[in-house]
Structure formats: C-alpha cells, structure tokens
Write a structure and sequence with these properties.
With 457 residues, the protein is of the alpha/beta class. The protein folds into two domains: 232 residues, UDP-n-acetylglucosamine1-carboxyvinyl-transferase, Chain (Alpha-beta prism); 157 residues, UDP-n-acetylglucosamine1-carboxyvinyl-transferase, Chain. The two termini are 23 Å apart. The site of shikimate-3-phosphate (S3P) has 10 residues, from helix 6.
Length: 457
C-alpha cells in the first residue's frame, strides 16, 4: 500500500511518564512475508497464526493471490494459504504494487524468476528509489530477464526463465533479501543451487524451507556459510506461528530505557541470533535487559524480554561485524544513543543508505533538529550523547516514507525536554499497526494529552 498519495499526517509527541506493563508487539515482518510466499509455493493448506497485518505483508498476501494462490484471512493474525506448488505460479493479470516493501518485491521476484511467466512490479516513491539490480543480477544467472528503469529501479518487468539452470552464487553484499531471492528461485531449477554468504544474515528462509520439506543443508566453511538447496522439492503446506518481531520490540524496549522509572515486558519475541544484535549492544551500553522464558516456537527461538530503566547508559563502539544482526535497529539505537553519556560509534552501516530511506542521513538530520550533535561518513554514524536529561527536542522530523525513522523519533520525543513533531506518521503501519496506541497505553495514557494527529496544511 502506498503512503505517498494523499495528505501527510503529522503528530506532535511530548514527554512521557514512566512506561509500565506488557507490550504486545506484532508478528515478525520477515517471517510473515516468507510464510505467505512458501505457503503459496506449497501443495495444500498452510495455516499461519500471528501474521503481521502491516501494509508490507498485506501487499505480499495480495501478490500471492495475483500469482494464483488462495489467500484468506480467517481472523486477527490468522491466515490460510492454499498453495499452487513449486513451479505453479500463474502469470499476474496486472502490475504488482509492493508499496513500501523491499523484502516483498525482492523475494517475490526470486520466487517467480524460474517460472515461464512475466510480471511487472512497482512500489511507492521510496521503493522506486531502491536498487533491484542486486536481485536481478543473480536471477539472470538462472536465465531470467529483467527490464527496469535506470539503475535497476522499479517499475520493472521480470521474464521468468523457461529452462532455468541452477546457480552457485556468492553474495557480494550481506543481504538476506538477496540470499532469499536466490534460494526461492532455486526451488524451481533442476539440480543444486548454492549460495555462499561470507557474513551471516538472517536465516529465516533456510529454517522455513526445511520446515516445508525442502532438502537444504548449511555448512560453515573458510568462504563463509555455504547453503545448498536441491531443486524441485515437493513443499507441503504447514501450520506456523509467527514470533513477535524483535525489530518492532526494539521501540518499546528503547523507549523504556529512555524514560526514567520504566519497566516493561515484551513477551514472545523472536531472538534468532541472526536478528538479536541490538540486545547485546544495549547490554554493552549498561542496560538492564533480560531474556526470560526462552523457548522454541515454529523453528525459531523466542523469549520474553524484560527491560528496566536503571540509570545512565554509556556510549559504545558497535562492532561492525554485528551490523547484519541488527541492521534495522540502527535508527532506534541512534535515538537511544542521544540519551547516553559519551559517543556511540556505528561503523560498517553503509547498507542503511539504501533502506526505506537513507537512514544515516535521516537520523543525522533528525538528531541535529532536536539538538543532538552527530558526525557522519559514507558508512558510519557517530552520535554525541547528551545524557539522560540533555536532549532538547523541539524540532520537526522528516519521516521520509520510513516507518523506522518515524518510530525512532516518536520514542525519542517521549524523553526529550520539548515536544517533537513528526511530519508524517502514516508509514508506521507498514510494520507496526497500533504502535502509538501501545506507547500511550504503556505510559498509562499520560502521553495522550501531548499528542495530536492532524493533516499538514
Ligand atoms: C530483510 C532483510 C534486510 C532487512 C529488511 C528485511 C528480510 O534487508 O533490512 O528489513 O526480511 O530478508 P537486506 O537483505 O537488504 O539487508
């Protein structure tokens, strides 16, 4: 769904009382996309509980229907997908609009690239700026062709390979989207498709492929992780429960660390080690954060996260090799770092420049607007922490069609001295429907008065 049509909706957020209680965050976005896509590529019925009902995932659900699967919403978070089987995608009647979702469009390009059909993809102004060549280059090795705008941008038409060949591909960027697109394409190629990732990225696709019955093996080697997938499996429909999203949990967790006197629990959050880098970083900054009741649900590790505001955080240097395990959490980390004592140095984060917005630039300009000094380089951001009471606030933030920029500054506003205005909060629903309601309820309703939703003139 696009947020670049219609009027922006701004919101001004003021200082909050302490946050208390239980924060139920939505289902994991990465896992939700994959559940719908693998359900569509399976034979029989897949039942999904806890699916994220954000705009991004709804776009993937609509896309799967356009490729011929039956996709039904049975109740809140409860979905049924009746799949067409590997190689069974039908040619869509019309252009597929993926709204804001890079994951959706890239994974689905992979999933259709080895079937002899043609599909045209587009998205909102943010997605139309993002590079697709990183996916279409490996898909060309299978025999797929693609025709897009300058720089490999959407709108783009992909013509699936009629006689695909298997591929051996070493990832040139640490990207789970690229890895997943290649693996999904490999499903309908004969023989063995191999992906080598020098730096591990989130492994939900591999786990879920195994769960649906694919023949997939993973081996650590001197080159990195070597993933081998046998082509033409018969995937069988599954019952899945989607864990709650650690990238969404990051917002109430960070807000609780910003607002004195807070203590909250976020239950049932995915803590897959390829996603959990933020929690390690927060501990290094001195945060009191505990993972309780650790268990496994649907092939993914899950825990309840308890976080307490105990005092001042210290700025740290985040190890660059941790970047893939917390790639979506740098915006909220940068906001939290504003309340720390000392500098927080984030290196090796060049990939942030090609997310829903250029997140290094968006955070740097936003932090400056609320009185926090920063330094920025091509792939580095340094936040000069102002201490627990030192963030002035008071500025207007451009959310740039980026849900995580909007939510990061909404959290910062809850502990800044003066209210902060966010120019457009509509993108929040791409990943976190109910975000504002949840934050208001954790604050005991106290934050409500300082807030107002109104369209910009
Ligand atoms: C995702 C992978 C990451 C991440 C995105 C979700 C996924 O992107 O930023 O929000 O579900 O595979 P890259 O693969 O581009 O790093």
């Amino acid at each position: 769904m696009t947020h670049d049509a219609g009027s922006p909706v701004s919101r001004t957020i003021g200082r909050s009382g302490s946050l208390r209680g239980t924060a139920h965050v939505p289902g994991d976005k990465s896992i939700s996309h994959r559940a719908l896509i693998l359900g569509a590529l399976s034979v029989g019925e897949t039942r999904i509980s806890g699916l994220l009902e954000g705009d991004d995932v709804r776009d993937t659900a609509r896309a799967m229907a356009a490729f011929g699967a039956r996709v039904e919403r049975l109740g809140a978070g409860e979905w049924r997908v009746t799949g067409v089987g590997v190689g069974g995608f039908a040619e869509p009647e019309d252009v597929i609009d993926f709204g804001n979702s890079g994951t959706g469009v890239r994974l689905v390009m992979g999933a259709m690239a080895t079937t002899p059909i043609t599909a045209t993809f587009t998205g909102d102004a943010s997605l139309r700026r993002r590079p697709m060549g990183r996916v279409t280059r490996p898909l060309a090795l299978f025999g797929a062709r693609s025709f897009g705008r300058e720089g490999g941008r959407l709108p783009m038409t992909v013509v699936g390979a009629a006689e695909p060949v298997p591929v051996r591909y070493r990832l040139p960027v640490a990207s789970a989207q690229v890895k997943s697109a290649v693996l999904l394409a490999g499903l309908n190629a004969p023989g063995e498709t191999v992906v080598i990732e020098p730096v591990p990225t989130r492994d939900h696709t591999e786990r879920m492929l195994a769960g649906f019955g694919a023949d997939i093996t993973i081996e650590e080697s001197a080159e990195g992780r070597v993933i081998r997938l046998a082509g033409h499996p018969e995937l069988a429909g599954q019952r899945l429960t989607v864990p709650r999203d650690p990238s969404s949990a990051a917002f109430p967790v960070a807000a609780a660390l910003m607002v004195p006197g807070s203590e909250i629990v976020v239950p049932g959050v995915g803590i897959n080690p390829t996603r959990a880098g933020l929690f390690e970083t927060l501990r290094e900054m001195g945060a009191d954060i505990r993972l309780e009741n650790m268990r496994e649900e649907g092939g993914e590790p899950v825990a309840d996260i308890r976080v307490r505001h105990t005092g001042t955080l210290r700025g740290i240097e985040v190890p660059p090799e941790r970047a893939p395990a917390m790639i979506d959490e740098y915006p909220i980390l940068a906001a939290l770092a504003a309340f720390a004592e000392g500098d927080t140095v984030m290196r090796g984060i060049g990939e942030l420049r090609v997310k829903e917005s250029d997140r290094i630039d968006a955070m740097a300009r936003g932090l400056e607007a609320v009185g926090v000094p920063v330094e920025e380089g091509e792939d580095v951001l340094v936040v000069h922490g102002r201490g627990p009471e030192g963030v002035r606030g008071g500025g207007t933030i451009e959310s740039r069609l980026d849900h995580r920029i909007a939510m990061s500054f909404a959290c910062l506003a809850m502990a800044a001295r003066d209210p902060v205005t966010i120019d457009d909060v509509r993108p929040v629903t791409t990943s976190f429907p109910g975000f504002f309601e949840l934050m208001v309820s954790l604050a005991g309703g106290a934050a409500e008065e300082a807030e107002q939703a109104r369209p910009l003139p």
